[in-house]
Structures are given as C-alpha cells and as structure tokens.
Amino acid sequence: MKCFLKIILILIVSMIANHSCKKDNPRPDYLTTLPISGITQTTAITGGNFGWYGLTTYSTGVCYNTIGSPALEENTGIIGNRKDSVTIDGYGEVNFVSTLTGLTPSTTYYVVAYAHQNWWNSYGKVLSFRTLAADK
Q: Structural domain boundaries of the chain?
C-alpha cells in the first residue's frame, strides 16, 4: 500500500510540474528592428515591433548613429553616446514607425529599435543603411 501511495504521489507531483512548465500562452519576449525603407539623401523610415505583455514600457523608438552600436545609457532611457541620436515614437506601442530626418547624404547609419522599461533597455538587432548621394 505504501508503494502504491508513493507512485500516486510521484505521478501527481510529476503532472503538476509538467503542467506548470507548459507555455500555453507564451510571453513573446522579443524586439525587432524593422527593415529600413524610404531611404533618401536625408531621411529614412524604420521602427520596431515588440511584445512584453504586462510590463510598463516608458518609451519606444530607435537609436541611430554613424559609428556603430547605437544605444541608450544603461538603465536610464537617455542617449548613451554624444554621437547617438534617438527618436521617441511612443509609450507602450507594440508596433511603431520611426522617421529619421536630417541625415547626411552618402553616409552609412546604424540603427536599432529600443524599448525603455522600468530599469532596463531592450534592443532589437542593429541594422545599417546608406543614404543616397547628393544630387550633382
């Protein structure tokens, strides 16, 4: 009888542990930098998609620069490098569009989508593009 009860107890614990590990409604922790489009001599369009359900997002947008690895200052939501530029395109939006303006012709830019949350910043993948050459 003791052996039978142990087996039943093991099965119950096993079922509970297995069920609690299943992700019937997984939280999609992702942030994607949208492909760059509409590139001209001085403008470009990008943005991001993200999904952090249930967490507060203070701002979303993109960071960009001409030297690589654009980012916000750690945990603050402000520009991390004096050569970085940032757009603020919303607060908590799942999809957002960023229009980059004032760009220099024939220049390579690096851009990354960000979401600033409570005490951390999350980023998509850094993408690069080159603005069109100036008209002659």
A: 31-130
Longest dimension (CA), the chain: 92
The H or E element that residue 110 is part of is strand 108-117
Pair of tokens at residue 83? 């050569």
Give Cβ neighbours of residue 97 (< 8 Å, ≥ 6 apart).
Answer: 34, 45, 46, 47, 89
The CATH number given to 31-130 is: 2.60.40.10
Q: pLDDT of the chain along its 136 residues, tens only?
A: 655 555 555 545 444 444 334 333 333 457 889 999 999 999 999 999 876 555 566 788 999 999 998 888 764 455 555 678 889 888 766 788 999 999 999 999 999 998 887 777 888 999 999 999 998 7
The values of phi and psi at residue 13, to 5°, are -60, -40
Q: Which residues pair with 60 in a beta bridge?
A: 90, 115
| Rounded Cα distance, 109 and 88, in Å | 18
The answer to whether residues 38 and 129 touch, using CB atoms and an 8 Å cutoff, is no
